[in-house]
Design goal:
Chain lengths: 252, 326, 289
């Protein structure tokens, strides 16, 4: 019997008054998924991510996480259930060090963040988890640096490290490569390849080379609804997709 | 100081803020101990600095670490002052017990007003903190049978400390009493800011929205810090009441709230050390200047504030220890 | 009938107090709304206006009706000058920095006023034609209170008309709603702001001059008035002149009734009102949705 998918959207629509931003979107994410969401500007990708993460509530349709109906559940609660997203514009803790940023995530996830005693630096469990994440994301050399002082590319990596600190089951990446240089993109890709196998990843991206190398499944969103969904080759060779991209010349 | 076993761990740990013990932490206490023997008639002044240091430390927790800009911290100080005064007059002159009562009075005000005030942001928050302090001032003014109204509370004297050391006019017992309380308060602050809760609070200061998305109940954490800060501010008020043996309406005044804010910003918020520096500088200078002419002092203070914010916004302590973190 | 006349009398007192609060607060709410600057020195301008009128009437012997507009203009000019100079620094710093700098400015104002006029309380002498009351059966209406209310209404209507029908008003509304957008369509936001700031200071001065019988002049006036004015601004909604009118009237009336009917705790009624109002609508009772 097929396992219940980690994330399932059934016929989700979102209207802002008369404006239909998302229309009848159905999507599933299984364990270990590496799925990309692409589409021209204004297609409604960010709205969809906001609907999935709980920042917005759908006008109609249902959202399930492992068979649990989370349609009306708050964003914070969805984080606790294992759905974590990163932001297109970094949302970090600027004056804290990289290690502290990640440790915050670890501490919050471990429900240890409330304790007003016990030196932070002696919480072995938190320290270990933090160090592991920093090493795996390649940020270990910058652990003691204030985030505000980091290069933009490294900040993007901290954004992902913070998300990983929350031990997500589902990870939503909102344009992680935005604004990155060539070398930084490679570093990001290396990081994405090393993500835990059991993790379900949905990534919004405009960088097609990154998408084609990483994704197993691609969903193409146009004008709020799904145009095509398939493997990399299927989507690449799809004439409708070519129309959308060549016809509109949309840029990331 | 980290006692982690593996060298890798103790190395890694240094990536967290330098809120460990440093010379800046020890210096004030070394000075307090040393100055006792040479201060002579300045003992009461240094005692006053110590009382204000406790108050400034309590403000640092909520302002420097939690990022809550309050212009009404005197509400908590005043609650403690009146709590200690009323307790001494009506229940028991025992100083230590009185301090606990003072702390609890501050906590109570913080616990009641915190959940309302801390929901607000920006200028509304500032206004609410001001309003609470003003409200308490008017309350103290009207409940004369309890608070002495405009005349205030007086005529109480703390009983000898530990039963052995009477509070004489020379102020020696008061000096060590204040020093002892200051040390305990400082240790408490250090423990709190170095804890996971301390990191959480700094996270809330840096990016409240993201903290929420990490699953942290932000308002609850802020109220907790406000309560801790309230206790310590109450202790400062109680200390002041017991040592000066006088409690008046100005314990709730805007001037007092403004003064402690200036002290902290001048010294440098968010590091705990700044509180000492700011309190010492401010009390010493204002004591001399206000004696000469209060309104000239106010004028100079106004100009000074503008200049400090313009040219040394992180406070003077950053000049001494530029790599201290926030 | 006695009760009705008492209530009417309280109402009139409350509304006139509210009008004074409105006049003083309206400049601050626009300042906060347009530039998001925490200007805690705002009440200082009201105070300086009052003292300026006092000096004009005292040393120059000017009549009240002359001193009033002259003081208003003088303070507006002062505000303009400060905005172009000191407030450049204020804009450049964090909110806490703004609070501290403007408190510093307030201290300078308080000290200056004390050095010039001493710490005694002063009130302006009301011209004889504004003194006295009108009697109608058992209703008495203080002429001066009526004057304040009428003045406040006129100013309120003029402001409304200015905002609604003039180009300047449109530009100002645009700057409040969306400064970036306004800039990009060619509105000179910094200029708009300088003029608005000056006008706000002028209006505060007007309120300060007109309100001395209710709010007497003394050096700490600038700090004493801070809490009520901030409450009016917060309850009215930042950036909303109509809001500060509504909030001013509401708080003025509530405060007056509270102090009269509950001698012991009447002063607190206004604080409770503010807290409830903000809990119900944190962005301000009269703010646009």
């Amino acid at each position: 019997m097929p396992q219940e998918p980690l994330l399932r959207l059934d016929d989700v629509s979102k209207n802002f008054g008369a404006l239909n931003v998302s229309r009848n979107v159905s999507l599933t994410l299984d364990k270990g998924a590496r799925q990309a969401l692409i589409g021209p500007n204004g297609a409604g990708k960010t709205t969809l991510i906001n609907l999935i993460s709980g920042v917005l509530h759908p006008t109609s349709g249902r959202i399930h996480m492992s068979a649990v109906d989370v349609t009306r559940v708050s964003a914070e609660e969805r984080v606790r259930l294992g759905l974590v997203r990163t932001f297109q514009i970094n949302s970090l803790f600027p004056k804290l060090t990289v290690a502290e940023n990640v440790a915050l995530g670890v501490s919050a996830h471990a429900r240890a963040d409330w304790r007003p005693w016990g030196e932070m630096c002696r919480q072995a469990g938190i320290l270990e988890a933090t160090e592991t994440i920093l090493v795996s994301t390649g940020l270990a050399p910058y652990a003691g640096v204030e985030v505000a002082k980091l290069a933009y590319g490294q900040q993007r990596l901290v954004e992902i490290a913070l998300a990983l600190a929350l031990k997500p089951k589902i990870l939503l990446l909102d344009e992680p490569a935005a604004g990155l240089s060539g070398a930084e993109r490679e570093a990001l890709l290396a990081l994405l390849f090393k993500l835990p196998q059991s993790l379900a990843v949905l990534i919004i991206e405009h960088d097609m080379s990154l998408v084609f190398r990483l994704a197993q499944k691609i969903t193409v969103l146009v004008e709020g609804t799904i145009l095509v969904e398939g493997t990399v080759d299927e989507v690449r060779n799809n004439p409708q997709v070519r129309d959308v991209y060549l016809g509109h010349r949309a840029h990331g | 100081m980290s006692k982690d076993s593996s060298p890798q761990q103790s190395n890694f740990v240094t990536n967290f803020s330098r809120h460990r013990l440093s010379w800046l932490d020890v210096l004030p206490f070394a000075l307090i101990a040393g100055l006792f023997f040479v201060a002579g008639s300045y003992l009461p002044l240094i005692t006053q600095i110590m009382i204000m240091s406790v108050f400034a430390l309590s403000l640092d927790l909520i302002l420097g670490y939690a990022g809550v800009e309050t212009l009404g911290h005197a509400a908590l100080f005043g609650a403690g002052a009146y709590g200690a005064g009323i307790f001494a007059l009506r229940a028991s002159p025992d100083p230590m017990l009185g301090l606990v009562v003072a702390g609890l009075a501050g906590t109570t005000v913080a616990a009641i007003t915190g959940p309302v005030v801390l929901r607000a942001r920006g200028i509304t928050l500032v206004m609410l903190t001001l309003a609470v302090a003003t409200m308490l001032l008017e309350l103290a003014n009207s409940v004369q049978w309890l608070t002495g109204g405009a005349d205030g509370l007086y005529g109480f004297q703390p009983s000898p400390l530990f039963g052995k050391f009477p509070f004489e006019l020379d102020g020696r017992t008061a000096y060590w009493y204040a020093a002892m309380v200051l040390l305990i308060v400082f240790v408490v602050c250090k423990v709190v800011v170095n804890s996971p809760f301390g990191l959480t609070i700094r996270g809330i200061r840096e990016n409240r929205v993201r903290m929420r998305l990490l699953g942290v109940p932000v308002l609850r954490r802020l109220v907790t810090m406000y309560i801790i800060s309230g206790f310590l501010a109450g202790v400062a008020g109680g200390l002041s009441a017991q040592i000066t043996q006088l409690v008046a309406l100005d314990s709730f005044s805007f001037v007092l709230s403004g003064n402690v804010l200036i002290m902290l910003v001048l010294g440098g918020a968010g590091s705990l050390n700044g509180a000492f520096l700011g309190a010492a500088l401010f009390v010493a200078v204002s004591d001399r200047a206000a004696a000469v002419s209060p309104f000239h002092w106010l004028f100079a203070l106004g100009i000074g504030l503008i200049l400090v914010v313009r040219y040394a916004p992180s406070g003077l302590v950053r000049l001494l220890a530029p790599h201290g973190s926030r | 009938m006695k009760l009705l006349s008492t209530i009417t009398s309280l109402f009139v007192d409350g509304i006139s107090y509210g009008m004074v609060l409105f006049l003083i607060s309206v400049g601050l709410t626009v300042t906060l709304g347009v530039m998001r600057v925490a200007n805690l020195a705002h009440c200082g301008f009201a105070m300086i206006g009052g003292y300026a009128a006092y000096a004009l009437m005292g040393s120059l012997g000017l009549a009240f009706v002359v001193a009033l507009p002259v003081a208003t203009v003088l303070v507006a000019v002062l505000g303009f000058i400060l905005e172009r100079t000191l407030y450049r620094w204020v804009y450049a710093t964090s909110q806490l920095g703004q609070i501290l700098m403007t408190i510093g400015l307030t201290f300078v104002m308080v000290a200056s006023v004390n050095l010039a006029f001493g710490s005694a309380t002063h009130a302006l002498t009301i011209p004889s034609w504004l003194q006295g009351t009108w009697q109608e059966s058992s209703f008495t209406l203080s002429r001066y209170r009526a004057f304040i209310i009428l003045l406040g209404l006129c100013i309120g209507i003029c402001l409304w008309a200015l905002l609604k029908f003039t180009v300047f008003g449109a530009k100002l509304r645009a700057s409040v709603d969306n400064p970036r957008m306004a800039r990009s369509v060619g509105v000179n936001v910094p200029n708009i702001f300088a003029v608005t700031f000056a006008a706000g200071c002028g209006l505060a001065a007007l309120g300060g001059v007109v309100g001395t019988p209710l709010l007497p002049l003394e050096p700490y006036y600038a700090l004493r008035l801070l809490v009520p004015v901030l409450m009016v601004v917060a309850v009215g909604g930042l950036g909303s002149p109509i809001g500060s009118l509504g909030a001013g009237l509401l708080l003025g009336v509530v405060d007056t009734f509270g102090r009269y009917y509950i001698p012991a705790g009447g002063a607190f009624v206004i604080y409770f009102t503010v807290v409830i109002a903000l809990l119900l609508r944190p962005q301000g009772l009269f703010a646009r949705a």
